[in-house]
Amino acid sequence: MNTIRTFVACAVAAASLTLGGCGCDRDLAYKDVQIQELERVNKELEAQMATISTRQVNNIITTAPANQAPIVTVKNAAGEGVDISSRDREVIFSIESSILFKAGSSELTAPAKESISRVVAIIKQKYPNHYVRVEGHTDDQPISRTKNKWEDNWDLAGGRARQVLHYLLERGVNASDLGFAGYAEQRPLNPAKSEAARQKNRRVEIVVIPKG
User: Are the CB atoms for 93 and 206 separated by under 8 Å?
Assistant: First the structure.
């Protein structure tokens, strides 16, 4: 898994490096081809990573002891970085924004894609007849450094939730079962004003909801 992450990171880094050139049209066209090829390789590596994650999740679920609580099995399958909780009949997969995104960004990191791929595998295995709502949450600090990208915390929360939703689509979750919402800072896990509390509050939740 670490090897795949390294390949993905190298592909992205190489694509960035090819952007610097002499300005010649021919060189720019060649660099465009290089970038397209790196993007294709990156997609293939992401698919391989998702396949490995799916196998791991399915193995954990199918070999779980018969007397083990279902929520424990799900937690084991989700792995590190994903918190599991329940609310009424809903199951909530919560991932901190520090794992999902770089500061102020909505572009998913490689560890984020691995975590989400594991959640998708769990949904397909354990909750096939459910709706899935992606919820974005921020801390209580107003947008400052990235005001050119986001109007406010509502915009950032919604943008991040939408990005996760699109990755769920890529991994095969049915579009008819999906939705997203942005809640800004309005639903904190911890109302304290400490940085530790704010870090917990910055998150995306994938909520699995029974149909009917």
Answer: yes
Specify the pTM: 0.79
Q: Mean pLDDT throughout 108-114?
A: 89
pLDDT score for 23 = 58
User: Residue 50 CB: number of other CB atoms within 10 A?
Assistant: 22
Q: What is the pLDDT confidence band of residue 10, given thresholds at 50, 70 and 90? A: low
Angstrom distance (rounded) from CA 82 to CA 77: 10
Helix locations, 107-152, DSSP H: 110-126
Which of helix, strand or coil describes residue 65? coil
Structural domain boundaries of the chain? 2-210
- Let me know: does 160 contact 102? Beta carbons within 8 Å: no
> According to the model, what pLDDT value does residue 164 have?
96
Sign of the four-CA dihedral 146, 147, 153, 157? negative
List residues bridging with 208 in a β-sheet. 91, 132
pLDDT tens-digit series, residues 25-83: 767 766 776 777 776 776 777 778 778 888 999 999 999 999 999 889 999 999 988 99
Tell me the C-alpha distance between 76 and 88, whole Å. Answer: 21
| Homologous superfamily of the 2-210 domain (CATH) | OmpA-like domain (3.30.1330.60)
- Is the CB of residue 132 less than 8 Å from the CB of residue 123? yes
d(CA 9, CA 117) in angstroms, rounded, equals 17
